[in-house]
Fold this protein.
Amino acid sequence: MDATTPRIGLRPTAYGLVEALALAADDAAGSRATTAVVAVGGTSLGNLEVVRDHDWFAVDLVAGHRYSISQTGITLVDPLLRLRGGNGGVLASNDDANPSTRDALITYTATASGRHFVDAGAWNDSLTGTYSVAVTDLTPTPVRDDFAADIGT
């Protein structure tokens, strides 16, 4: 069974009976076929439902811009973050940027414009839980001079 197959879970009730629970299918594909998106300047939420689950979020980056890409655990205790290029190859990764929270952070300067993928996972592919991912453009906005550069200004 893969992470996209709906599963049935069993939970004991107060009366000793077993209740069947339908567990949700995967919220984001772990490949370039993902439909999940995180916008630059935005945040998206996700859930690693089973061990070895990876959620990929498409994001469009601009060459020469510097970005902060983070994965913050909500119930996930040890996020592992990867940034992938348009072909799916790993460009950067991070685990435990903040040792006290185990959250992950990548600072990356894009070498090409276009579609990239934020790959949200867990340490050693061994954990489940909810998290958020965020992408921030750290490139300073150029200051526009509103006066001509001549002696009349």
Observations:
- The first strand starts at residue 7 and ends at 12.
- Residues 1-13, 15-24 have pLDDT under 50 and may be disordered.
- The radius of gyration is 20 Å.
